[in-house]
Amino acid sequence: MSPDGNAEYFATLQAEIAKMLSTDAVELAARSFVVIFAGAHLGREIASGKITKWLKQEFGKPRWTEANTHAYDAVSIELELIYERTRVAARRHSGPLILLPRGIQLLAAPDPITALREYL
Fold it and tell me: What is the CATH number of the domain that holds 10?
């Protein structure tokens, strides 16, 4: 996409989505993880759709447009990749996310954002 195309794309996004896209992904991953997996037990499965639900609670439910929907989907996938890269949660094939041993440690961390950065 050309630089002008990027400008056009970002101009179509709501302010809330622009804020979501400008927030540090590791911070979002840590904050979402401790909410989504709160009270979960080791090996527990959590639906990946809960990430998008959390994002909508944090940044507002966007008016439906293709650009808005794709923005939430892309950030949700990015957070899942951070979970997997840091080995706090993973998925079997294309199913739900599964809480891993390192995820238990992250849930107990006094500062989950710093802890998740250390896992990277």
Answer: 1.10.10
